[in-house]
Amino acid sequence: MKLKYIFMTGLVMANLTSCNDYLDVDTPSKYGDDYVFSTKTEIDRALNGVYAQLLNNNLYGEKYLKDLCLNSDVDFATSSDEAATSNGFRRFECTADASQLKNTWNAAYQGIEYANNFIYQLEKSNIYKAGDEDLFQKMGEAKVIRAMFYNDIIDLWGDVPFSFTPTSEKEDMITPIVNRDTIRTLLIQDLQAIAPRMKYARSLENTIEHVSKEACWAMISRMALSAGGYSLRPNKSDVTSHGTMERPANYREFYQIARNYADSVIKSNTHSLNKSYRNVFIDECNFIVDNGDDPIFEIPFAKKTSGNIGYIQGPKASLSSGVSIQPNVWGETSGSAQISAFYGYSFDEKDARRDYLNGMWSYTNQGDSICVPAIQANYTMYNNKWSKLWSQAGNFENNSSGSTGINYPYLRYADVLLMFAEAENELNNGPTEAAKNALKQVRRRAFSSEDIPLKVDHYVDSVSANKESFLMGVLNERKWEFAGENMRWKDLVRNNLYSVECFYSFLRYYGVGENAGGTSQYLDYVAEHDGVETSRFDKLPFSVYYRRIANPKNTDVYPNTALEILEIANPYTNLNKKPTDDESITNEEYTWKEYQGNFGWWNDGKGTPTNQCMYSFYGFIRGSENGMIYLVGNDGNTQMLGEVTGHMTAAQLPVVRYILPYPSSAIQRSAGAYKNYYGYAN
Asked: Which helix (H) or strand (E) holds 187?
């Protein structure tokens, strides 16, 4: 059963404070804590107010999955701006006065404030002290949510203001900046203490739309793996430095925690990967909640009230294409959270995730509630993981846009299995059978039964030769599994591979752009890095052949049989000629058509690849109108790209300045206690 209205009270409370700055928020304590925390009914309502903070579009409702889902070889947004901008988060350059920084920062700390107040008031209440097991569960839910807020801002800001004390109980209103390792250690210990008192999802009335014991364990594992990995650390003696990539000296202790708690989830036998990959997300689009499959905790958005999941993902669909025509029955979608044009090329051709995730068409309205597919072959593909259009007709109003109410699976069993495999591999200096079996479980779901011996068993054995190759096998599986879930750049950071993947992702775009204008000197190196034949880039489909067809029933890819789709004859390879039309087709709209210009990314006027190819990684690497490529050094100055190979390492490249600056408003309110490093101005 999908929760629809449980958080309405919390949303109203959230709206009262959503415009205030951090440390200037209204605290929940002012509406009678002694009364609220004296009965279980009122405690439930207070906990709903904590959950409601997750629904903010400046956080999990949109911004974490779009604007703050940083560019990589998976999630990708182009930029054609050849000058610095104040809000270029995805291309690694921004300023402290960027409005979205302030909005996300304030929303996250408002959530922390609600959680801190709930935990503080519940701990001192007589009903909690009496040892009620239901209240221990609710305490665990609030603590996990607090950990979510903190963990995700640490990923973006590094060392951040930290306190477990609600504002109403503080003497000093300036919360001190605390080292990220210390924060995560305290959060882990906090969850370790409450986890034994929590309940499995199958025992919860609200199922996986509330935090369970398994979700608590999975959150511990996620935080520990992040804590044990690399991250960008500031050089406090030189504020102009972009910092250095480091991991803590005791990183193995964190990996051991990550391994043990992931193993606890696995051994609980409470979750599985029985559904097909696509049906996990299609069910979410249809408000179906499954208590025992892949999702471990879904953030429960409310339709018409919160969440843009399925509006920002999936193909774009317009309300209308002209005057006086009827809108489509699902309403508008923006399709703005997209993926790299080269992402689909990384998959095995028999991997069911490839054709489900990578969307090459949008929908325009032609009247009479008909959505007509239109080719979209560009710098990016639509991420078809979620979409309003995958929902049953009638679930949305025909003039609707965002606030879809589609849940976001914040914690998944597939993630737990792959975290276990990664940690087990690190701790044992190579893969164990348990690690290989965990990887196989995730991969098995993506292939048909007849392909499992070769594509799963043989594949996993082939990447298990040593620690390094198995790690890449796990990271690649995560790449194919978690598109659009704000995972890829974090996985790369944790393993000090972000600069490497950003470097070759830039060269893919730049090199293919050069190739469109003649030849490229870089594509051989990209192919060597990718471990594929150079000829792959010679076979890119510069002309795509497509035709409209009815979506067949019981299709294995696109679920909505009421919509037409496009059949793409050559999505991943070039064709020498247009396919032959069927003799039975009489309507010209359903014949094969050619879309020219796919990957035609050369600007004849400038004699360079197009701006999108040159500037989408601007703060790390970029092209120029003089035909040169420049890296942004660790001192913030550009340096001309030198010798390139197919095996560049992080040691040969500058760091990626993915860490964001503290918002100017937070620095001002701290009276100088907060200070930006990483080359940012205060």
From this structure: helix 180-194
